[in-house]
Specification:
Largest sheet: 9 strands, mixed
Structural class: alpha+beta
CATH topology: FAD/NAD(P)-binding domain
CATH architecture: 3-Layer(bba) Sandwich
Strand content: 25-35%
Bound molecules: flavin-adenine dinucleotide
Radius of gyration: 21 Å
Length: 416
């Protein structure tokens, strides 16, 4: 820890999925970067957890919704859109994680009980993959292992508890040790962001009226890189390909069903999942540790405060349907990196730059929130469109070129 706090160009609070690559790219652009994280890196991949304990664990209960989300994010995987993958490749960060990333070659979107499906295929769109699925824990660990060589000063076990604005810098206070001073503070400290709270930025929380069981299943057959998004009356059911014969599952349900699902043993849960999804992926052989969480939308009331920017989950948590949250966050990152440019001695926390950033990002953020809301709510409950209309939407997507192309480009993160 520093004993005599100098003023650093950029302090990043949170070395998660967003904060770690952000630190790497800013350091490569010549900025002085200090990266702080409250915890230690998780060391075991979730797929490995299933391999080692294939018929195991049962439900995994977490105390509060936010704790549950934070645990989920550590244990789970994330689908990177093609746009996000290209950003990593452009900054020479992709090769380190490529071997562990499962390509999505096709996405099948269907609706339970109705005719109509849409298929997005990478080869039809002339791309190698529509996106890539990475293990959150492995991905973060690999990214963190490169930090020292890239000149980032990384401090683990450094929990930010408060921030204080000064005239030309922000002071970042830790639970333990002396404070850091920064021209620009980037808050990437997750859904329960201490920076957001301390900076006095409010948040809106909306309950989607859904819960989700998150797990990994082992298949008897190969998945061939095909992801499935199936809309049901209780919400989406999604399967994402992982490396090997594994798939990550997000199984949405009515909140009242949560305790019933938690009480099922693994065999009973697997039978329920098989009945709900059918045999499109063949037989499910085993299921790994399972966690149920309420699905919330949490959004900060502002993205910036003096010399401070909120990014990633500190800014916004979305419904997982359509895999938009991380990819939207990385487009925020890409924009901020572009505006900051290479270090030529300018002040990175300048108010005009932060204002420009907020304006530049507004449209894309609004569109993604609207798109995700439509997917999350449009296919279920009282807010849902009538069944035959939904069916027509899916059929329409498959047959109407431009609409389908828009859907594909949005899913691949190539629209902004
Ligand atoms: C079930 C689910 C599935 C999802 N699937 C997808 C998907 O397929 N595709 C997609 O695009 N998005 C997906 N998302 C969204 C995606 O997971 C998030 O966008 C992403 O995790 C955000 O990363 P982050 O770095 O902001 O936060 P995190 O990854 O949560 O990292 C926060 C970091 O901050 C640290 N920290 C916390 N508090 C402090 C503190 N006080 N001081 C210092 N450090 C601190 C933590 O230790 C952690 O390392 C999903 C979300 C959910 C809930």
């Amino acid at each position: 820890m520093n004993s005599q706090p100098d003023i650093t160009d950029v302090v990043i609070a949170g070395a998660g999925l967003v904060g770690t690559p952000l630190a790497q790219v800013l350091a490569a652009n010549g900025w002085d970067v200090v990266l702080l994280d409250a915890g230690e890196a998780a060391s075991r991949s979730s797929a490995a957890a299933v391999r080692d304990a294939p018929v195991s664990a049962g439900p995994d209960r977490a105390a509060t919704p936010w704790q549950a989300h934070e645990r989920v994010l550590r244990q789970r995987c994330t689908a990177l859109s093609l746009g996000t993958q290209q950003w990593f490749a452009q900054h020479a960060l992709w090769s380190a994680v490529a071997d562990d990333a499962a390509p999505i070659r096709q996405v099948n979107v269907t609706q339970k009980g109705y005719f109509g499906a849409t298929r997005l295929r990478a080869d039809e769109l002339h791309v190698e993959a529509l996106g890539y699925v990475v293990d959150n824990a492995n991905f973060t660990q690999v990214m963190r292992s490169m930090l020292a060589a890239q000149g980032v000063a990384f401090h683990s076990g450094a929990r930010v508890v408060a921030v204080r604005e000064q005239a030309s810098f922000v002071e970042v206070h830790l639970a333990d040790g002396p404070p850091f001073r920064a021209r620009l503070l980037l808050a990437v400290d997750g859904v329960s962001s201490a920076v957001r709270e301390s900076a006095g930025i409010g948040r809106q929380q909306t309950d989607y009226g859904q819960a989700a069981a998150l797990s990994i299943v082992k298949l008897e057959d190969a998945h061939h890189g095909v992801a499935h998004e199936r809309f049901t009356d209780t919400g989406p059911l999604a399967f994402l390909p992982r490396t090997g014969p594994y798939m990550s599952v997000v199984d949405c349900m009515e909140p009242a069903e949560r305790s019933t699902i938690d009480d099922l043993d693994d065999a009973a849960y697997l039978a329920r999942l098989q009945a709900r999804f059918g045999y499109r992926l063949g037989r499910f052989e085993a299921v790994g540790p399972r966690l149920t969480v309420p699905l919330l939308r949490i959004e900060a009331s502002a993205q910036t405060a003096t010399r401070t920017v909120l990014l990633g989950n500190a800014m916004r948590l979305l419904h997982p349907v359509g895999g938009q949250g991380y990819n939207l966050a990385m487009r925020d990152v890409a924009c901020l990196v572009r505006l900051l440019g290479t270090n030529r001695g300018a002040d990175p926390g300048e108010a005009d730059l932060l204002r420009h950033f907020v304006e530049a990002r507004r449209n894309d953020q609004r569109q993604v929130v609207r798109f995700t809301e439509t997917l999350a709510r449009g296919f279920r409950g009282r807010a849902a469109l009538p069944g035959h209309v939904r069916s027509a939407v899916l059929l329409g997507l498959d047959t109407l070129g431009p609409l389908r192309t828009h859907f594909a480009r949005r899913t691949m993160g190539l629209t902004s």
